[in-house]
């Protein structure tokens, strides 16, 4: 059997409730869970006017949801060469996704200029379009760029346009499974050689009470405003906001390109429930078949081989009385239903959790939220706790002999040599479109030892941004980062800033030989900027259309032969900047 090549995740960006504006902050929230639900912010809509516990007279019955703490109206339009008029017509789901995509490219260490004109593909998941509905209510005041600003297709197309990428570009709506289906399409495109790199992303922002009212009428939403996965008191799902972006490459290409590999996507799969008990009724049979077929597609047999099983399962876990038992049954049957292993085989239970108990159901982003959690888990070697479990659903209780919900952080179970940490991720659309992904830790073939000198060495640290104000923000962010990560490798940091960041028009170069010295110099630059209205003497700026100038000529005391400096230029293009 020919096994498909694994796909590497090399960059991640995200915005989730609870101020989880980066993977690092999301991990902190996962390890130290807290209640981050709230009423709808007053600048979205009047929550009290559209809420009633009995969901009558045009109201919804969900008292709280999970919102981003960042202002969704804030957008760096000049950075993306978008006018104010056009930006006002754009769905904030497009605006914020552009920013998060850029952040994911930065975590991947990919300068924007290195990707221009490439065949990079874009695969986006989208379920809700609140903004389009809102700005179209007054036909006399519809903004000029409404068609391009609110069309679902533009979520992906605008990313391809701005970054000048020429690969496949599509937006996918399969409801709650949209983003995991988008991941499946991105993985498939890479394996089919449709693109060298794939960007998989999704957005979900809430601006209107409309979906609350509609979902309440179908009794989908939780009247307590919580996703109580597999709990006896589960009463529906709580809505949540989120933005997510992943950068993918074939594993062999990521290794060859020297990219930072966070984890690998071993396999993905999709199917549909078909004619179930109802169009919104999930099917444990279809779900179980999908899990097994996804494992089988890469030669894994989790029912009969312990080493082929995942150690953690990131469930869809919305917290509904209809969906929870179906998913629990599907997971149990896929791994233990007709296992040929002896009954007395010693094994860890299969731990099952869902990020929805922490940040709510992010709808079209839910699949990627689970994948990002899975990626962080296999990188850190820790299984985070689930929230909101008081008493297991009696229907699910018989399955807990093998399935276990963690209620506190757990170290990863011990594994045999060569067996990777493995997580399964479920995501289901309410119309029956199912998706599954297998995420694994990356085990390098050999461990490389960096030959960095143990002696302190003075290194250059280059910081740049599109505006002077943004450059100050960048310096402040790095100052906080260095304070929180005092053990960071300075050589790697200097190399990343020089080679793996886009070179913008406002720059400052700082030299330092230690973390303390670097922080001191950053603070000096910040003080210069804060004490004077004029530009800091250390900040160099030039218009984007300014011609390149000769800074200096290094002759080597004689210029022994023509084009003597060319070798340096070829090795380091920055020599021409």
Automatic annotation (TrEMBL):
Pfam families: KAsynt_C_assoc, ketoacyl-synt, Ketoacyl-synt_C. The keyword Transferase applies. GO terms for biological process: fatty acid biosynthetic process; secondary metabolite biosynthetic process. GO terms for molecular function: 3-oxoacyl-[acyl-carrier-protein] synthase activity; fatty acid synthase activity. It comes from the Eukaryota. Keywords: Multifunctional enzyme, Phosphopantetheine, Phosphoprotein, Transferase. Belongs to the thiolase-like superfamily. Beta-ketoacyl-ACP synthases family. PANTHER family: FATTY ACID SYNTHASE, HIGHLY REDUCING POLYKETIDE SYNTHASE SDGA. This is DHHC palmitoyltransferase family protein. It comes from Aspergillus niger.
């Amino acid at each position: 059997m020919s096994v498909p090549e694994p796909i590497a995740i090399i960059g991640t960006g995200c915005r989730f409730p609870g101020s989880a504006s980066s993977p690092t902050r999301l991990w902190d929230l996962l390890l130290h869970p807290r209640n981050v639900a709230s009423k709808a912010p007053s600048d979205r809509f009047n929550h009290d006017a559209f809420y009633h516990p009995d969901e009558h007279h045009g109201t919804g019955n969900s008292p709280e949801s999970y919102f981003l703490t960042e202002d969704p109206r804030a957008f760096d339009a000049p950075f993306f060469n978008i006018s104010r008029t056009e930006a006002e017509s754009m769905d904030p789901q497009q605006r914020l996704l552009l920013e998060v995509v850029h952040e994911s490219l930065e975590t991947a260490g990919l300068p924007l200029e290195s990707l221009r004109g490439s065949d990079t593909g874009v695969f986006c998941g989208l379920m809700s379009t609140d903004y389009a509905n809102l700005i179209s209510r007054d036909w006399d005041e519809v903004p000029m760029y409404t068609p391009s600003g609110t069309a679902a297709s533009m979520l992906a197309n605008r990313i391809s346009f701005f970054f000048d990428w020429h690969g496949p570009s599509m937006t996918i709506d399969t409801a709650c499974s949209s983003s995991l289906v988008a991941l499946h399409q991105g993985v498939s495109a890479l394996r089919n050689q449709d693109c060298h790199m794939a960007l998989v992303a999704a957005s979900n922002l809430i601006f209107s009470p409309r979906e609350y009212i509609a979902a309440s009428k179908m009794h989908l939403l939780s009247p307590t405003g919580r996703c109580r996965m597999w709990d006896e008191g589960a009463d529906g799902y709580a809505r949540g906001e989120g933005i997510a972006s992943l950068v993918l490459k074939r594993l062999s290409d990521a290794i060859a390109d020297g990219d930072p590999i966070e984890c690998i996507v071993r396999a993905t799969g999709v199917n549909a429930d078909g004619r179930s008990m109802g169009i919104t009724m999930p099917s444990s049979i279809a779900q179980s078949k999908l899990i097994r077929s996804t494992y089988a597609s890469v030669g894994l047999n989790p029912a009969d081989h312990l080493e082929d099983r995942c150690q953690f399962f990131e469930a869809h876990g919305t917290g509904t009385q209809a969906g929870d038992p179906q998913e629990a049954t599907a997971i149990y049957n896929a791994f233990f239903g007709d296992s040929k292993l002896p009954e007395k085989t010693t094994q860890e239970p299969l731990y099952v959790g869902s990020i929805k108990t922490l940040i709510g159901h992010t709808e079209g982003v839910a699949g990627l939220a689970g994948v990002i959690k899975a990626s962080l888990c296999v990188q850190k070697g820790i299984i985070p706790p689930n929230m909101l479990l008081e008493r297991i659903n009696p229907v699910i209780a018989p399955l807990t002999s093998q399935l276990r919900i963690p209620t506190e952080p757990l170290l990863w179970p011990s594994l045999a040599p060569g067996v990777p940490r493995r997580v399964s991720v479920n995501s289901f659309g309410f119309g029956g479109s199912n998706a599954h992904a297998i995420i694994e830790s990356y085990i390098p073939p050999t461990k490389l030892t960096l030959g960095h000198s143990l002696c302190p060495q003075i290194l250059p640290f280059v910081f740049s941004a599109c505006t002077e104000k943004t450059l100050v923000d960048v310096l402040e962010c790095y100052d906080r980062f260095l304070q929180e990560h005092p053990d960071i490798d300075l050589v790697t940091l200097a190399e990343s800033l020089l080679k793996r960041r886009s070179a913008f028009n406002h720059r400052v170069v700082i030299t330092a030989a230690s973390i303390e010295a670097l922080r001191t110099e950053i603070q000096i630059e910040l003080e210069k900027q804060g004490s004077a209205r004029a530009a800091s003497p250390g900040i160099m700026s030039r218009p984007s259309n300014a011609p390149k100038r000769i800074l200096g000529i290094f002759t080597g005391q004689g210029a022994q032969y023509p084009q003597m400096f060319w070798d340096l230029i070829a090795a380091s293009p920055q020599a021409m900047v």
